[in-house]
Amino acid sequence: MENQDLLHVSPDVQEKIEKLINENDHFAALFEEYRKVKHDVSLIKSEEVVTTDVHLKELKVKILHLKDEIYSILRR
């Protein structure tokens, strides 16, 4: 599960994510931030947005931190 993209998980996990988004404001904010940063990284990788390697690395680290916190909540 750790290496999967949170946007493409099993139906059971997807249901739990949707439930938490609707019931837990903190989780909803984390998940929205995760989606935003993932989108930003995809724009950079597709060369639609230009940035530095340092900034791209910072975004990737942010994704990992968000993912860790999201998985922590999902495991409860």
Short description:
With 76 residues, the chain is mainly alpha-helical. The protein has helices at 11-23, 25-45, 53-75.
What are the salient characteristics of this protein?
76 residues, 3 helices, 0% strand, mainly alpha
Mean pLDDT: 91
Q: Indicate the structural class.
A: mainly alpha
Percentage of residues in strands: under 5%
Describe the biggest sheet?
Answer: none
SSE arrangement, N to C: HHH
Protein name: DUF465 domain-containing protein
Walk me through what this model shows:
This protein has 76 residues and is an all-alpha fold. It has one domain. The protein is 75% helix and 0% strand. It has helices at 11-23, 25-45, 53-75. Helix 1 packs across helix 2 (25-45) and helix 2 packs antiparallel against helix 3 (53-75). The model has no long low-confidence stretch (mean pLDDT 91). It holds the Pfam family DUF465. InterPro entries: DUF465, DUF465_sf. This is DUF465 domain-containing protein. It comes from Flavobacterium bomense.
Write the topology of this structure.
Blueprint: H1 11-23, H2 25-45, H3 53-75
Helix pairs in contact: 1-2, 2-3
